[in-house]
Amino acid sequence: MNKDNILVVGGGIGGLTVSIALRRKGFSVTLIEREPEWPATGVGIIQQFNVLRVMADMDILDDYLANSYGFDETHCFNSQGESIFSFSSPRLAGEELPSNVGVSRISLQNILANKATELGTDIRLGTVLDHWQEKTDGIDAVFSDGSRDSFLLMIGADGIFSSTRRAIFPHAPEPHYTGQWVWRYNMPRPEEIKGIHLFYGRVNGGLTPLSSGLMYLFMLSEEPEDFRLDQRQACAMLHRRSRDAAPQIQQLMKFVHDDLEVVAKPLQVIFIEGPWHKGRVVLLGDAVHASTPHLAQGAGMAIEDAIVLADELSGSGDLEEVFSRYRQRRFERCRFVNINSRAIGDMQMGTRNDVDPGEINRQCLTLMAEPI
Predict the structure, then answer these.
(1) Most buried pick, 20, 186, 214, 267, via CB within 10 A?
(2) CA distances from 222 to 107, 114, 202, 261 (A)
(3) Is the pLDDT of residue 249 over 80?
(4) Neighbour count for residue 245 (Cβ, 10 Å)
(5) How far, rounded to the nearest angstrom, does the alpha carbon of residue 114 sit from its chain's CA centroid?
(6) Cα(300)–Cα(337) distance, integer angstroms
(7) Is residue 40 pLDDT above 80, yes or no?
(8) Given this model, what pLDDT does residue 41 score?
């Protein structure tokens, strides 16, 4: 396929990763992001060995590891804070690399943005796609600043509420609320927190290290569909939801004191069963298969999407063939994460009693070990 300019809509993890992957394949890339600057706040995420493999392939592994915390250990506790079991995850990306990584979203965003810029991506912050017209040989786009440009194709990496998805698939399902919210807060990391600590019971949550001195606390709560976060009361709301948590969680709530640092959102999901493209427009990441965080693979699936899409675009065939191969390579893997992440959440809320989280995690590890 020729190396004409490609438009990427959305400057999140998926959009930046696909920009890097495409530039490394020789494509010209323009990335637009509606926010006027990269985020200055945020908490962390867990990423697993399959993401480490991609970071190595993109030549950013050293920066990634230098700005994250690698670990193999998982420790599980009951609602009284008593240890249930612990285990070490296999180092499936190589014995020299950890099996899991905790990384702040800001660090990851900066690493990806710096690499995309270094490789020559045309990044336009504070820019929205006003409208576009698809022609037989490309896409003509008009942006919010009045500028115009032409592209070979367009990639919608604009998240779960993707305007790109709504434009090409106006009758597709909308994101569905699962019944849970997730609350996150960064705080100092005690020396003994060297891996992820998971707490089960009436309040499910955990602790994930991000650096030598930082970790983040996460907590899940069941909320009615009309529940809304009052950011001015965020700490008080989180404190109330921690009252039935394990003692270790309750003891750490003394660090939760800044309303603006509380990050909370409803867990919503979407999975497009049909085509992931229409004409010269294709979707990736949360725009097409947003999951809950129970398997810690949401960002990982977007990152893998980006690599596979760039790989297929650099191969042979017309766009219809390329996009179909991309979906075929990604569909079952993303569907597994989507369905089983939600199943674990349903189990936590008591709406399912046929879910074995340990077996699901074992199957997930096996699947992620397979080539993409």
Answers:
(1) 20
(2) 30, 38, 10, 21
(3) yes
(4) 23
(5) 19
(6) 10
(7) no
(8) 73
Q: What whole-number distance in Å separates Cα of residue 8 and Cα of residue 124?
A: 10
Euclidean distance between CA atoms 129 and 10, whole angstroms: 10
d(CA 335, CA 333): 5
Q: To which residue do tokens 């992931």 refer?
A: 276
Report d(CA 319, CA 276) in Å as an integer: 12
Instruction: Please answer whether residues 319 and 137 qualify as being in contact, where contact means their C-beta atoms are separated by less than 8 angstroms.
Output: no
Phi-psi region of 88 (alpha: psi -120 to 50; beta: other; left: phi over 0): beta
Q: What is the CA radius of gyration of the chain?
A: 21
CA–CA dist 160, 291 (Å, integer): 9
Is this prediction's pTM over 0.85? yes
- HEC profile of 62-115: HHHHHCEEEECEEEEECCCCCEEEEEECCCCCCCCCCCEEEEEHHHHHHHHHHH
- Using DSSP's 3-state secondary structure scheme, residue 281 falls into strand
Q: For 69-123, how does the pLDDT look when each residue is reduced to its tens digit (9 = 90+)?
A: 999 999 999 999 999 999 898 898 899 999 999 999 999 999 999 999 999 999 9
Task: Report how far residue 196's alpha carbon sits from residue 43's, in angstroms, rounded to the nearest whole number.
Answer: 15
| Tokens representing residue 246 in the block | 């394990």
Query: What would the DSSP string read from start to end of 330-370?
Result: HHHHHHHHHHHHHHHHHHHTTS-S---HHHHHHHHHHHHHS
Domains and CATH numbers, the chain: 6-174+269-369 (3.50.50.60)
- Start-to-end C-alpha separation, the chain: 21
User: Angle formed by the axes of helices 319-348 and 298-313, to 10°?
Assistant: 170
pLDDT attached to residue 2: 57
Residue 33: what are its φ and ψ, rounded to 5°? Answer: -140, 130
Query: In the numeric block, which tokens belong to residue 355?
Result: 């879910």
